[in-house]
Amino acid sequence: MKHSYLKNVTTLAYDIEKCEGCGLCAEVCPHGVFEVKGKRARIVDRDSCMECGACVMNCPAEAIAVNAGTGCAAAIILSWFTGKEPSCGCGDVECC
Ligand code: SF4
Ligand code: SF4
Parallel, antiparallel, or unpaired: how do β-strands 40-43 and 64-65 relate? Predict the structure, then answer.
């Protein structure tokens, strides 16, 4: 199943200069946001990032940063578990 979120809202940040090419980010990301080619990772599907933080926790080079568990992505994930309508608390009904 392919999930996508609002465009250009993820807080995902990546510094390619720090990348060591270990491939862990691509391995742990549930949505295929990263791909490793050659000796560096690159972001191939940024808008699919759900800000789970798995890549950040596994990157040995501290090349990735994300505000995990915030905003619409977190609200959508929570709604999957609770079965309730997503609400990120921003007050915009169309937001999530
Ligand atoms: S986990 Fe970090 S060091 Fe490893 S490939 Fe990904 S960005 Fe590069
Ligand atoms: S935060 Fe989660 S979804 Fe986003 S790129 Fe990292 S592992 Fe993938």
Answer: unpaired
Residue 77 scores a pLDDT above 60: yes
Q: Could you tell me if 34 and 22 are in contact, meaning their C-beta atoms sit under 8 angstroms apart? A: no
Atom of ligand 2 nearest to the CA of 54: 7
Region class of 3: left (phi > 0), else alpha (psi between -120 and 50), else beta: beta
* Residue ID of nearest Cα to ligand 2 atom 7: 29
Residue 51 Cβ < 6 Å to ligand 2:
yes
pTM of the model as a whole: 0.75
> Of 72, 34, 40, which is closest to residue 54 (Cα–Cα)?
34
